[in-house]
Write a structure and sequence with these properties.
Elements lengths: L5 H23 L25 E6 L9 H16 L3 E6 L6 H12 L4 E4 L5 H10 L4 E5 L8 E6 L1 H15 L4 E6 L4 H15 L6 E6 L6 H13 L4 E4 L5 H9 L2 E6 L10 E7 L2 H12 L7 E4 L6 E4 L7 H16 L9 E2 L5 E3 L7 H5 L17
Parallel strand pairs: 1-2, 1-3, 3-4, 4-5, 5-11, 6-7, 6-8, 8-9, 9-10
Antiparallel strand pairs: 10-12, 13-14
Length: 386
Amino acid sequence: MKPLSKRTLLRYAALAPAVLALAIAGCGKKEAPPAPAPAPAPAPVAAPAPVEALKIGFVYVGPVGDAGWTFAHDNGRKAIEAEFGDKVKTSFVESVPEGPDAERVIRDLASQGNTLIFATSFGYMEPMAKVAAQFPDIRFEHATGYKTSANLRTYDSRTYEGAYLAGIVAGAMTKSNTLGVVASIPIPEVIRNINSFTLGAQSVNPKVKTKVVWINKWFDPPKEAEGAQSLLNQGADVLMQNTDSAAVLQTAEKAGKFAFGWDSDMSHFGPKAHLGSAVINWGPYYQKATRDVLEKNWETGSAWWGVKEGAIDLVGVPDSVPEAARKRVAEVRDGLKAGTFSIWKGPVIGQDGKEVLAKDAVGDDKFLHDIKWYVKGVEGKIPAGN
């Protein structure tokens, strides 16, 4: 082995301190702390379950375009949609005959998930009562009927108030003192309207008499027109109706006579003949019934709304009607709103000359629902069996 030279030894000696310093530095170095673990992602928040819309079904006795009764109910259905938006989903079946077909349609609506169902004609009463007993968790509403149960209630408009207001105008406008009414089905509701129309006319013109033609249909424009023409031929010069189309008003327009719209504003069907329309507004009640179900406040019972609740009014009375009559209409309307005026306040005399309501006595709702007779001044007979 070759001995290291003195120069080499001196070189190693010079390097030794640097090597030692590096060694010491290496021994004193600390490890860097590990990077913190990432924070866990927040758990996803579940979206609230969508609230299922309340399904509401309507059964109509006529077509929605009848311009009268069914048209007014359909406006009420639209008022529900406008008020509650996507909280509700409505549907309807139109032109449903009263009887077995009605029972089938009502049951179908119940089976399709509708939990609030409106049936809009008197003849639907028995079918709806039967179906309601089979679907206790569904709420049923019947227009113009009188049968109720735990899940079936009734509602109606005091159409006789609109008829009385129309009568005031008719009594002031007639020249022949003969009024005419085209009537549908001889039930107390319709008879009450004929009588109230006559009482309103007699309140401003005691000479008035009223003739009636029954067509036994709610909606049959040809028959309605035929009935109107028959009344005109008998000397009537102002016509009212308790049917659902504008045919009576149109017939009066052609003959140069006067008439009223019924249930809806029919003025555009006979602008020269039109003396006003007794308009039903179902919207307020339909909105209330829907709110009752949505808020779980629905209870059975009966509602009969009139001028006071905004459910009926005479609209579109033209300036050609004498100012005194228009003023009287306004006074009676205000009295009905305030509860200070009663249409059926005695003395009231029946067609047979007997007193049916004593002086100052006021007919209550039971009395009004039981009217199956004519007042003095109405001519003819009510069809048998009613």
